[in-house]
Backbone:
């Protein structure tokens, strides 16, 4: 009986050894294919961009983001960074399937199934086995919901990723049946009914792009069972140590993952948001709009410069300058015309000369259809200004016009003439509040408008107190 058990154990060990080698070789081969295809995918993206239809902040709907995966690997009860139920590991076949929705470039949700056997055996390693028994065998099926954190979406070195690193963290339920070998050479003793416990898987992985829809997926997951009987500890023999950590096992796997969706859309796993942003900023239509905006700004700047242009440097822009090309240093009024300050008129009597002062408040005459002051009017205006400044009087400047043209035009012309007189007086020091404007147009003529002499007299500004 003992000889048959030992032979079965040797045969089983040989089968597991062969299985481990086969799985390892398969993983290496798949990795080599994945790396080669990833390199080809990376090189092809150097020649062209295939993300022209995707936009920054365009939403996950512009990508394919639902995928399914199948994987196979090995389960192992020994995890190096925690307390283990057995001293020596014994690998068993594991398998799994996933359904994933990648909600963004960085985060996704994954529904995962994981199954297979987990076994440990310290038989043949001397007395004092770790927990008072020689081994265990547990058949496990678990379903978990995992959060997937993507570390490889953003790349500053390539337009499109071909290798994607990620991590997972989840929670769910494990349904398992443990059995224990209590003494050397004994058969497995089943626990009984199927046990249901909470399970929390933590893992890391890497995907290699085989095509836009298909990827090679390699990973490592540690599942922590929220109980103490997964590894057979319900049959701890007398003298065995009590556990101080939850039961656990690891799953190393390789598999394929397929992403569903339209061929017109890209797989979100392989889209680099940095490249998307770069392409959108350098979009041809956007650049054309920017160039057009630059042109409009240039036109506005040119127009403003034209408005400010002052060819003769008299301080009055060209478009408002009624007397262009005045000599440098000339004192001008608001219309750009020179202001002349004449000396008082003199009358010679024999060898002597008598000074005759110009009378203020005389009518100011204008040329036909003009509101520009004559230089001959300056003496009267200067005398009027001096009197107003000394007396503080308030005057009404009444503007008139001859009868040529329409009544509306002549009304505006008479107002412009009165404003020209006011501007001169204000510039000479008369307070603006002491001067009022009244326009009469072609009404109230002082001479006959049917003659030129009469019309000349009617083109005037009068001072009314």
Residues:
């Amino acid at each position: 009986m003992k000889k048959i058990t030992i032979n079965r154990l040797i045969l089983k060990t040989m089968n597991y050894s062969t299985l481990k080698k086969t799985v390892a070789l398969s993983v290496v081969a798949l990795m080599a294919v994945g790396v080669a295809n990833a390199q080809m995918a990376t090189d092809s993206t150097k020649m062209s961009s295939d993300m022209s239809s995707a936009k920054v902040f365009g939403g996950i709907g512009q990508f394919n983001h639902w995928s399914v995966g199948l994987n196979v690997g090995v389960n192992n009860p020994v995890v190096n960074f925690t307390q283990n139920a057995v001293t020596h590991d014994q690998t068993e076949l594991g398998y799994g399937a996933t359904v994933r929705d990648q909600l963004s470039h960085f985060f996704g949700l994954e529904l995962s199934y994981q199954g297979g056997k987990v076994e440990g055996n310290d038989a043949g390693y001397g007395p004092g086995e770790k927990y008072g028994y020689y081994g265990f065998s547990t058949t496990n099926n678990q379903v978990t919901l995992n959060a997937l954190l993507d570390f490889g979406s953003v790349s500053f070195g390539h337009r499109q990723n071909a290798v994607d690193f990620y991590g997972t963290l989840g929670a769910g339920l494990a349904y398992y049946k443990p059995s224990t070998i209590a003494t050397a050479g004994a058969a497995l003793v089943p626990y009984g009914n199927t046990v249901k416990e909470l399970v929390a898987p933590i893992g890391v992985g890497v995907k290699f792009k085989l095509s836009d829809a298909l990827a090679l997926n390699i990973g490592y997951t540690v599942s922590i069972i929220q109980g103490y009987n997964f590894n057979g500890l319900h049959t701890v023999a007398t003298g065995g140590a009590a556990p101080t950590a939850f039961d656990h096992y690891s799953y190393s796997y390789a598999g394929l993952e397929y992403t569903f969706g339209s061929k017109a859309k890209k797989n979100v796993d392989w889209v680099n948001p940095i490249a998307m942003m770069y392409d959108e900023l350098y979009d041809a239509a956007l650049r054309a709009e920017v160039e057009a905006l630059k042109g409009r700004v240039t036109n506005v700047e040119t127009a403003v410069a034209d408005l400010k242009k002052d060819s003769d440097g008299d301080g009055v822009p060209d478009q408002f300058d009624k007397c262009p090309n005045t000599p440098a240093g000339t004192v001008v009024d608001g219309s750009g015309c020179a202001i002349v300050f004449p000396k008082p008129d003199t009358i010679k009597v024999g060898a002597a000369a008598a000074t005759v002062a110009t009378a203020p408040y005389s009518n100011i005459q204008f040329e036909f259809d003009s509101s520009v002051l004559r230089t001959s009017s300056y003496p009267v205006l200067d005398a009027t200004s001096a009197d107003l400044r000394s007396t503080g009087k308030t005057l009404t400047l009444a503007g008139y016009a001859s009868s040529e043209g329409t009544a509306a035009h002549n009304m505006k012309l008479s107002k412009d003439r009165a404003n020209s007189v006011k501007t001169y007086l204000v510039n000479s020091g008369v307070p603006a509040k002491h001067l009022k404007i009244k326009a009469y147009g072609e009404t109230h003529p002082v001479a006959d408008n049917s003659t030129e002499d009469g019309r000349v007299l009617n083109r005037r500004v009068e001072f009314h107190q």
